[in-house]
Amino acid sequence: MPEKVYILDEVTVVPGRAREYRTRYLEGYAPGARERGMILEEIWISPPFEWEEGSNTIRFLWSVPGAAGWWNMRFGGGSPNFDASGAEQAKWWRSVEHLTISRKRDVLVSYEDEGASG
Amino acid sequence: MFVALYLIFPRATDATVVDAVTVALGGIGARLPQVTAELLQRPIRAESNDAQLVWRLCFESEQDYRNCLLEPTWDEARSALGRGDLRVESVIYQRGRHGIRSPEIKNGIWRAMVLSVIEGTCRDKREQYESEMATMPDYIPAIRNWAMSAVLESSGSRKWAYVWEQDFDDVDSILGEYRMHPFHWGVIDRWYDAEHPEHILDGKFLRTLCPSAGSGIDPKRRLSTPRQSGQLVSS
Prior knowledge:
The structure holds 2 protein chains of 2 kinds.
Chain A: E1 5-13, H1 18-35, E2 39-46, E3 57-64, H2 66-75, H3 87-95, E4 100-108
Antiparallel strand pairs in A: 1-3, 1-4, 2-3
Chain B: E1 2-10, H1 15-25, E2 35-41, E3 53-59, H2 62-68, H3 74-81, E4 86-94, E5 97-100, E6 108-115, H4 123-139, E7 145-155, E8 162-168, H5 171-180, H6 182-186, E9 206-212
């Protein structure tokens, strides 16, 4: 079982709005994520400067402690409650749609983790 | 195999309602000549939003199911399921893609999830989801038997789209190997996670977990079908 599971949010932002997006992410999304056990490991920006005339892609790398941490993130440590799960977060993502060109979320583990190579 | 599945929820937390419906439905399946297997069961580990009673009827064909609805005995079922103090979510479906690797499983757990898809989800996404769900048992041996079926007709609170059923040896294998496998949380879960950009499933699921003497996915046909002369037969 992996010790750490990483979640990578990759967002391509409307030109000139990278700083605003980052601020909104940190103020609007990150507090709830931390409450669900997610640890913000790193934020990257590409190209490597705030581009006023072009689109930046911002990558937010989170981690949770293993598979159990994953389910804790999803259901807050309780029984799976799909009715409530993700609803607040989904609402937040919708609130920044006007700043977003595209978005993806990847789940990663270290290739060196036991089990990752099959 | 064609299936009719009824998930029954009392509108109030009154245990006697479930008792009464259990008594009312008990024995009906055995008197319906078209029914090849039946499960009438209170689920285990029921959460507040889980069904309190499950009734699952198997038929050889959709036509047998349709004929069953014309049996006088079915009026008793209609009456039991139509009580005002119940909410009933029902689906009918032809068993879809499935895999049976433990046909003789004994005293295991039959688990079912009834799922609806967000309106407007494109066919390609649905097919990809169906395909990945069908691949899941290849990676997770704890899933002893499984079926992924598209719902033909449904009633209740949603337009239900899929029934995902599995047989497990025990509850521990669900909470352990099944839940913790990276294929589950690293691949499949994105379809269910409301904040994931690829999710396609409505958050309002139905699920049930029932003890099962044999396979719930591939139940043994009952030994004798009480079909009598003069009763409807499948065409």
